[in-house]
Amino acid sequence: MKVAILGMGSVGKGVLRMLGEKDLGIDVTAVADSKSALIDKNGISIADILRVKQKSGFCGDRSLGALDVVKKADYDVLVEVTPTNAITGEPALTHILEAIDRGHDIVTSNKGPISREFSLLMSKAREKGVQIRYEATVGGAIPIMHTLDQGLAGNRILAIFGVLNGTCNFILTRMADEGLTYEQALLEAREMGYAEADPTYDVKGIDPAIKLVILANKFWKETVRLEDVDITGINKLTNNALRLAEEQHCTIRLIAEAIPGRGILRVAPRLLPITHPLVVEGTLNAITIETDMAGEITLIGKGAGSVETASAILGDLLCIRDIHEGSHPETA
Q1: For position 327, what pLDDT does the model report?
Q2: CA separation for the pair 174, 315 (Å, rounded)
Q3: Contact yes or no for 182/171 (Cβ under 8 A)
């Protein structure tokens, strides 16, 4: 199977490294970063491209770009891992639509287009008979989509609750464990590389709200957008609130919750018993699924990271490969 990869940030390089280390029968025939691209229908040396990127800052020809890869390269699956723009979904939305029009399958970690234009993308994919897989958009390495699609097939999903942002979880953990102020914990998160220079999307709850939109659209076939989510972040929390919670043998976590039967779609700090399954430490993510047959199931894992996100992307790629080959993922 041939893949083209758009995006050579942390995630893109992680995907390339894992493809280079594992013999999965997947060839990379094109790559693009924000300023250049490389296309070779015979396959690209992953070691060479990573070395060139590290040395020069470019992956290839500066006269080529991502759209050249989408329109001209020889590939079966487009892996779209460029940075997220939650407002417009661009340029990833254009990349994905162009690839679908060409009849190619899609694997993406890009939350922007999936959250903004879910119905459009799924409709276009059905028309063209192609797949869009986006395990890596929610929960990093946690296989939430695969679990619900396969492991819990036949169950009715009643509700989803989750800790979906590692930056916020790290800040809340440090505030509770060490008595830090919000500002001190945020500074520590920045120093450790867990928070961006501008942490607005994380601390104001926008990032977990985007992930909640994706889950709601997938599992309840709704047309939900970010504007439909009631969002409260952690940026106004005080360590006083954490101390009061501790006196009640509780703590505070930023919880994203979707309960369609009650019309609930929100992200907000919640008081939880310290023994609750969603009280995870540090940068971990956790997702509880409430079902009609299996009851409640909680998945816990790393919600971000180069290799961790690559795990989700490779899982999607192998699902597509197995479908094309007529085998089943669980027996491949």
Answers
A1: 57
A2: 33
A3: yes
pLDDT at 328 over 80: no
Domain that holds residue 292: 145-302
Q: The pTM is what?
A: 0.93
**Whether residue 157 sits in one domain with residue 69:** no
> Is 211 considered catalytic here?
yes
The active-site residue out of 13, 53, 111, 211 is 211
How is residue 148 annotated by DSSP? Answer: I
- How many angstroms from the chain centroid is the CA of residue 15? 14
Identify whether the C-beta of residue 247 lies closer than 8 Å to the C-beta of residue 271: no
* Structure-token match 């417009």, residue found: 88
**pLDDT tens for each residue of 130-161:** 999 999 999 999 999 999 999 999 999 999 99
State how many domains the chain has: 2
Q: What mean pLDDT is reported for the chain?
A: 94
Residue closest to 304 by CA, chosen among 289, 325, 331, 283: 283
Q: What CATH number does the domain containing 209 carry?
A: 3.30.360.10
